[in-house]
Amino acid sequence: MVEIVERRxxxxxxxxxxxxxxxxxxxTNVGVALIDRDGHTIESNPAFQxxxxxxxxxxxxxxxxxxxxxxxxxxxxxxxxxxxxxxxxQYQIEKRCFRKSGEVMWGRLSVSLLREKEDGPAFGVxxxxxxxxxxxxxxxxxxxxxxxxxLADSAPVLIWMSGTDxxxxxxxxxxxxxxxxxxxxxxxxxxxxxxxxxDLQRCVDTYVRAFDAREPFTMEYRLRRHDGEYRWILDAxxxxxxxxxxFAGYVGSCIxxxxxxQWxxxxxxxxxxxxxxxxxVPNLIFAKDRQGRFTLVNQAVADIYGTTVEDLIGKTxxxxxRNKEEVExxxxxxxxxxxxxxxxxxxxxxxxDAAGKGHWMQTVKRPILDKDGTANxxxxxxxxxxxxxxxxxxxxxxxxxxxxxxxxxxxxELTASLAHELNQPLTAILSNVQTALRLLDDPVPDMMExxxxxxxxxxxxxxxxxxxxxxxxxxxxxxLKFETLDINTVILEVIGLIRSDALIRHVSVELRLAPxxxxxxxxxxxxxxxxxxxxxxxxxxxxxxxVSERRLGIVTTQNDARSVQVSVxxxxxxxxxxxxxxxFEPFFTDKPHGMGMGLAICRSIADVHGARIWATxxxxxxxxFRVVLPISExxxx
Amino acid sequence: MMEAAPTVxxxxxxxxxxxxxxxxxxxxxxxxxxxxxxxxxxQRGACQGPSCLxxxxxxxxxxxxxxxxxxxxxxxxxxxxxxxxxxxxxxSVRAMKRGALDFLPKPFMAQDLLRVVDEALDRSRREQKDxxxxxxxxxxxxxxxxxxxxxxxxxVAGKLNKQIAVExxxxxxxxxxxxxxxxxxxxxxxxxxxxxxxxxxxxxxxxLGV
Lengths: 637, 210
What we know:
The complex is a heterodimer of chains A (637) and B (210).
Chain A: H1 2-11, H2 18-27, E1 31-35, E2 41-44, H3 46-52, H4 56-61, H5 70-84, E3 90-98, E4 104-115, E5 122-130, H6 132-154, E6 158-162, E7 168-171, H7 173-179, H8 183-186, H9 197-213, E8 217-224, E9 230-241, E10 247-256, H10 258-280, E11 284-289, E12 294-297, H11 299-304, H12 309-312, H13 324-340, E13 344-352, E14 358-369, E15 375-384, H14 386-441, H15 447-479, E16 482-485, H16 487-504, E17 508-513, E18 520-523, H17 524-541, E19 551-560, E20 563-570, H18 598-608, E21 612-617, E22 623-630, H19 633-636
Parallel strand pairs in A: 17-19
Antiparallel strand pairs in A: 1-2, 1-5, 3-4, 4-5, 6-7, 6-10, 8-9, 9-10, 11-12, 11-15, 13-14, 14-15, 16-18, 19-20, 20-22, 21-22
Helix pairs in contact in A: 14-15, 14-16, 16-17, 17-18
Chain B: E1 7-11, H1 15-27, E2 31-35, H2 38-44, E3 51-56, H3 64-73, E4 80-84, H4 89-97, E5 102-105, H5 110-142, H6 146-156, H7 161-168, H8 172-185, H9 191-200
Parallel strand pairs in B: 1-2, 1-3, 3-4, 4-5
Helix pairs in contact in B: 6-8, 7-8
């Protein structure tokens, strides 16, 4: 300090004033003190005194080291001794000092050696700056870095950081533990040695491309683990921007997705397997949403609709099925299943394929439940039962045909016999009567001959009557087999015959059969014929009615103690009021190809059974035919 | 020429019908013969006078069409009127095609049957008369000598005696004698009569060679 003063004096003679130097010494914020060999503060400026909180006298009396933090004492003392011994001209140290108040002050101490004479005593000129604030800031930064490190090291992910030169500057402990390498080995581009050679180029390309664009990136690659095994890693990097938006490199985090990858492979394989399984099944498997759009189909559905599985997804039945009525029935059923949350077993339903060919299906539909317990999809599986159904239909047709033939045969035989048998006596009668008339033209009629003729006419007429009686009894006794019957059973047999027909025509059949109906007496075939005719008429009557409104109802009720009533109701077009009775007359028909014999036969069968048959129009739509059959004697007793 | 009484045969298996038809036909002045089966009728044999057959289509042994065929097989082809209790068209058409005279569905009016029977007998009578004439002419032709036949052929061909004489290489006088004989034997009064007889008798004159 003195030397400085000297120098200043020599450089600038105007500044030699002791007063001006003092002023600076006293007013500067930097603490300045003159220390002797023993470490006593010989002289100190006010700033110095302020920093340590001691007065000039107090400082003079105490050795400097007394206010030095014990941990920092040795380094300072060593440096001071070395300087005094001439091994250095000056030194600097950051050390902690105790203020008089006991507070710790971080000080930056610069000490220079000062000799007043060549061989005179040496002093130290100490310049002390209070750097407590900076130190505390440094400390807290160190702590936050430490915190980050602890956080990063305890994170379950591998973390890396890179600088603006793309080179890596940091790897967390999990990373290092994963690769089994040291931080020094990994820094820079060291980490790339652990990347699988096949993935490295792709990896680097992705990194560089993202880096140059300052964009986040993700990539998957295999990274060699400490045990030598390559593991699949998902690495996500994001650019780091400082508070002033300046780019500061990347931070990346990586997770081991080997298991996940294996899982997804397993899931994919399982899905492919599932796909194969549902495609190999000959059943139609499908799922549809509330709009009727397919969300899942198998190959069998695609085959029926003449397209591919992919094409079907998102489309509806209506896009492929030309039978509008059928599609409507499917829709109704699907919605019903979703609304009621009930499985639905459909024993038989009809589906038209792309070529317009019909298939019979046995179908199960089940709601697919969402988390909230409602259903917005329906799952279905349908078995093609066409072959079986055809066999059944054929059988039913054969039965129908048989029944029809039986009917025709009875009628045909009846008319043929009637015609031929009656023609003989009629021919004889006509011929005889006309002969008699001729004889009467004679002037003298041969009355004997005429008497004979008239006798023959009488006998031929009786013969004709006998023929009719014989035919009637033939119909009653030989052709008809009267037995005691449960009318409900007869109805079920008839339903068996028309069920397929009703299904094809989308007519729902409702049976309300009174239990324990008393037995009736009748010919099973004839009664079947009667009910079959009524049922088929009912189906025919609903041809022009919308699908959803086609209903055939068959109801049995016990009318009174002596009779049972069967009602056959349809929702068809009804019967004109003035024709309610006429419909039973032979050759009355409103069908384009009808014979007009069906209801006439019904009435004749009813007559033979002592039953009544009549028709009424329903209050709503359609007509009802009622047959009241007398209860069998056995049942009454 | 004495004509046999026209006969109407009735074949019907129904006794009432048989009896009433027989009675009707008799009342109309015909001779009626009735048979219950086709077999009975076949045994009856051909009849001389004019006749016709009222045949029921449905018979217990042969049906009407079969009997029609069977009769044709024995060279008899009576005029047939079918009657039937089944008035079915295909059968009636078949019957008519095979030469039946009519087809009456039972029951029929008496006048309808009698009218058809009348027609049938008329036709039968004509046919019988034709057959008789033919047999007479043929018998007469059979009585001509070969030379007389040659002369007949020349005359029928419209040739003069002189021409015939030249062709036969005889005298004109001889031709004249033969011609007289032919006219006599054939019961012909004129050349026209002769030509008619030859035509009717299907005597086709052989071409006269030299």
